[in-house]
Amino acid sequence: MKQEIVLEIPMRWMDMDAYQHMNSGRYLDYTVESRLQWMGLNPEIMRWVEDNELQFVMVKQNFEYFKPIVYPCMIVLTQ
Questions:
Q1: Cα distances (Å, whole numbers) of residue 13 to 18, 20, 24, 34, 58
Q2: Which terminus of the chain, N or C, has less C-beta within 10 A?
Q3: Is 77 helix (H, G, I), strand (E, B) or coil?
Q4: CA–CA dist 79, 2 (Å, integer)
Q5: CA dihedral 34, 40, 42, 45 (to 10 degrees)
């Protein structure tokens, strides 16, 4: 069974634009943060990756904007 991953990250003040929306270029920063948090939550997988001299490689990333993220807020990332 696939484990659902839910991470909550507070939006940073520096990531908003003049309209208090998240700058579109910052979405990628939050996905990087979520991957780092996921790695911290899965030390057994990370040990296996290191033991086998593997690396994570991002092949493709796609964003669909449904509505603006407005400061202040908690960003919830799910798998």
A1: 11, 9, 14, 18, 27
A2: N
A3: strand
A4: 10
A5: 100
Q: Which two tokens stand for residue 60?
A: 């493709």
Question: What is the per-residue burial (b if ≥16 Cβ within 10 Å, else e) of 34-64?
Answer: beeebeeeeeeeeeeeeeeeeeeeeeeeeee
What DSSP letter does each residue of 12-50 carry, written as one string?
PGGGB-TTSBBPGGGHHHHHHHHHHHHHHH-HHHHHHHH
